[in-house]
Amino acid sequence: MSYSWFYVEDELLINIYRKSVEQNLDKEFIEFVFTEIKGRDLVSEKPVHLLRIK
Record's superkingdom (predicted)? Predict the structure, then answer.
């Protein structure tokens, strides 16, 4: 299955990640979203330190 996150804004993607972790959703989905966030350079070296968060 292929997903296109191209049109998803950065803040929305971060919110999806946060809510997924809070609600203990599927681990593969959380990792998939985090990989997209990481690919956009929205995180530092560690997943817990998300940048661009107000």
Answer: Bacteria
**Per residue in 25-51, pLDDT tens?**
999 999 889 888 888 877 655 555 454
Residue 7 tokens, joined: 């049109």
Check: CB of residue 13 under 8 Å from CB of residue 36: yes
Q: Are 48 and 31 in contact (CB under 8 A)?
A: no
Best CA proximity match to 17, nearest among 3, 38, 1: 38
pTM: 0.66
